[in-house]
Amino acid sequence: MSEEQLEKNIEQGRVQDIAQEIQITIDKLSQQADKVSSDAHEIRKTFWNDVTVNIDEPDDFEETFWSIRQQVELLSERERSEKQLDKQIRTLFRLKGSPYFGRVDFTEEGEVSETIYIGIASFMDRNEENFLIYDWRAPISSLYYDYPPGPAKYETPSGMIEGEMTLKRQFIIRNGTIEGMFDTGVTIGDELLQEVLGKNADAQMKTIVATIQKEQNQIIRNEKSKYLIVQGVAGSGKTSAALQRVAYLLYRHRRTLSSKNIMLFSPNPLFNSYVSTVLPELGEENMAQTTFLEYLSNRIGRGLELEDSFTQLEYLLNSQETEEYKTRVDSIRLKSSIDFKKILDQYIKALSEDGLEFKSIKLKNEILLSGEAIKEQFYSFDRDISIRNRIEDLKEWVVKELRKKKKLERRKDWVKEEAQFLDKEDFLEAFQKLEAKRKDDKESFDDFGYEEKLLAEIVVSRYYKPIMNQVKRLAFIDYPTIYKNLYHTLGDKWVKVSEYTIRSLEKEEISYEDATPFVYLKDRLEGAITRSSIRHLFIDEAQDYTPFQITYLQELFPYSKMTLLGDINQGIYSHSNDAESFLPEEMQGDEERIILTRSYRSTKPIVEFTRSILKDGDMIEPFNREGQMPTMTMVSSGRETLLRKIVETIKEQSSTYQTVAIICKTAKESAEVYAHLKSEVPVRLIEKGTISFETGILVIPSYLAKGIEFDSVLLYNVDMYQRESERRLLYTACTRAMHELHLFSMGEGSALLMESMDYIEVR
Ligand SMILES: Nc1ncnc2c1ncn2[C@@H]1O[C@H](COP(=O)(O)OP(=O)(O)OP(=O)(O)O)[C@@H](O)[C@H]1O
After folding, report:
1. Which part of the chain is the UvrD-like helicase ATP-binding domain (predicted)?
2. Buried b (16+ CB within 10 A) or exposed e, 455-493
3. Which protein residue's CA is at the shortest distance from atom 3 of ligand 1?
4. Is residue 217 lining ligand 1, measured as CB closer than 6 Å?
5. Pocket lining: 368 vs ligand 1, CB cutoff 6 Å
6. Is 571 in the pocket of ligand 1 (CB under 6 A)?
7. How far is CA 92 from the centre of its chain?
8. pLDDT higher for 563 or 457?
9. 608 lines ligand 1 (CB under 6 A)
10. pTM (2 decimals)?
11. What's the confidence (pLDDT) of residue 754?
């Protein structure tokens, strides 16, 4: 038997021993879980038997309260343990099949050599003395990610440990059997990566803990920086690193940090679902995930129709270079900038003296309180008081005024009339109140007069309640007009942008580029709801955020560290700029920047092709995974033939691969292609509202494919990508392909693809 085989047998023996140990622990914990579960069941069943209920006297009441509370605490303690045990058992089951993926032999200076096995969770021997498996996030495990055999060190809370790594071994273990075992010289050997990357795509992202690369590990374990900026080329593992970073932080700070303290801003709802299984797979709970659009739309509220970011993009991609298009691009650029934020700040300052506008508060089309009266009241307050505090005082004043009006309203004829049409329940309510009143007030009680008053009160309250609620929400502040008036002050340079903005606001619409400034204005005036519980904010696809938006987010999450991940070459919005740092200048100074240049997603021929779409793509390094050269199918006889060719390719590809995506430039084009294909192949259309996707064949607009990957990509109609501004979109679309990329053209081709690029041409 070769030495290698002998080694493998020894390792296989260890895997079996560990599996047995794990099973023993599973059995032990399962027994405990059964006990806790039956305890909890018993408490629930006998909850009220063990509570002393007596509420006659205040003392008895208190005793009852404490008695209930004690039972509730007992129950929730059991429920917590039940949940905890359940989680441990689930992790152990996962460990049993695949206990670890790495081994490092390390000799600390002056100590004996130690063998460390690394897996997705820690596991100790029965006496809880030795680690049989170390969690990948433990300090010592970083040796595995950061060093080849030789001198190595790792950081612990009590200082740096230095020594010598004598062996580094990787495993692929499935169902308790070692399927692959490699001793590696380099950081993380290529064999395992080859195996992982060669697999088919899934509708869900995978964890990468077994093959985290050194530079990715720096992102994951970074603890110091206030702002961590990751500029990484397409497919370099930015999102993967971000998610493993969340798992790392949750583990390292488990006493002080929970998933509730972490938030991820992602590009679209589809992406949210795509990444949602990674953390649970690592035994952690998911953090809150949202999109910036969703946030804005909640803050804008009713009254203005918000154009979403996709509609904005769709407009830009479908338009010719008309005057209107140019104005729109100017508008987007202006409103994305920090300079514009400063203009807005000046405007807000001026509003302290004049310019705030208020809506009249009406009841049944009659004005209860006019906008002018409210304004007059506002500016009668002391101007040294901040706008925010004055608004609070104003709210109180408005409530008081309305209460006065409400009292008078009860006497009006329309109220009496409506009172006759009240429901049985309303009369019952009035009657009960009447009874109570009669009890208190035996002597001088006028039944009839009082009943009439009560009924009138019911009618009037029904009308005033929604008005009062709106007042409490400050809906009487006329933000659209206040925001619109800003555009009367911008001057000649921005006359077209101003006209365009005013026009759209007058139609009660708000463009996507106006949404952030509008919400910012609102926040500055009435006070933002800052999220102080969030300690770590992750912004994926950070290149798609405007400098204005990034500073705004920083203000919203004042106690949070920020991890911004992005790729300037995938900046597909008009405001996208070439700034390497996604941080506006104002925020710079406290940041650390990590650059990822290696692309793992696609095969070498695909990376070589996609990087040449970019003007400066030379720094992008492909991972050495072989595959087919991209193809370009040119059809000069029209759309029908092109679609027929596409159907042929889909059929061929879907027999090999799980996910085949037909990527179109726009949603409009996607819908057309889908209409054509759906009778030929089982295909699904992905739209901006789609929240999840399954494996299979799908048609998707380029910008919704952001962050996601497919086994095979068919790029429909490359002739649609001609403008310089569309280069990055073309790059983004092509870089979604893992194993195969096929481009289709109706003859003209794209000016952005050069003759010299490496692809196979099929005419
Ligand atoms: N260290 C790694 N080990 C295994 N797979 C990896 C590793 N790093 C990245 N990958 C794989 O490469 C692919 C791309 O990763 P990911 O989506 O995180 O990259 P990205 O930089 O966010 O890409 P993009 O910007 O193009 O959306 C995924 O399939 C991911 O699993």
Report:
1. 211-603
2. bbbbbbeebbeebbeebeebbbbbbbbbbbbbbeebeee
3. 211
4. no
5. no
6. no
7. 29
8. 563
9. no
10. 0.87
11. 74
User: pLDDT tens digit string along 218-227?
Assistant: 999 998 889 9
The predicted-structure confidence for 117-164, as pLDDT tens digits, reads as follows: 999 999 998 888 899 999 999 999 999 999 989 999 999 888 999 999
* For the chain, the helix, strand and coil percentages under 3-state DSSP, each to the nearest 5: 50, 20, 35
Q: Are residues 379 and 460 in the same domain?
A: yes
Tell me the β-bridge partners of 135.
119
501 within a domain of the structure (yes/no) = no
Which residue, judged by its Cα, is nearest atom 27 of ligand 1? 707
How many independent structural domains does the chain possess? 4
Q: Determine whether the shortest distance from the Cβ of 239 to ligand 1 is under 6 A.
A: yes
Question: What pLDDT band is residue 426 in, cutting at 50, 70 and 90?
Answer: confident
76 is in an annotated binding site: no
pLDDT in tens, 38-71: 777 777 777 666 666 665 666 666 666 676 777 7
Q: Which residue's CA is minimally distant from atom 23 of ligand 1?
A: 235
Q: Transcribe 551-602 into DSSP letters.
A: HHHHHHSTT-EEEEEE-GGG--STT----SSSS-GGGTTSEEEEEE-EE-SS
Does 237 count as an annotated binding residue? yes
- Token output for 411: 């006497």
Asked if the structure places residue 703 within a domain, the reply is yes
Residue 538 lies in a domain: yes
ipTM field: 0.99
Helix (H, G, I), strand (E, B) or coil at 284: coil
Q: Hey, what amino acid is at 271?
A: F
58 and 186 both lie in a single domain: yes
State in Å: Cα 544 to ligand 1 middle. 19
Co-location of 623 and 553 in the same domain: no
Residues 725-740: tens digit of each pLDDT: 889 999 999 999 999 9
- What is d(CA 524, CA 552) in angstroms, rounded to the nearest whole number? 11
Residues 387 and 413 in one domain: yes
Within-domain flag for 377:
yes
Q: Which residue range(s) make up the domain with 628?
A: 617-762
Q: What is the pLDDT of residues 352-370, one digit of tens each?
A: 999 999 999 998 888 989 9
CATH of the domain at 663: 3.40.50.300
- Domain-terminating residue out of 205, 232, 267: 205
Rounded average pLDDT over 189-196: 76
* Surface-to-core class of residue 428, CB atoms within 10 Å of its CB (0-12 exposed, 13-18 middle, 19+ buried): exposed
> Are 581 and 642 members of one domain?
no
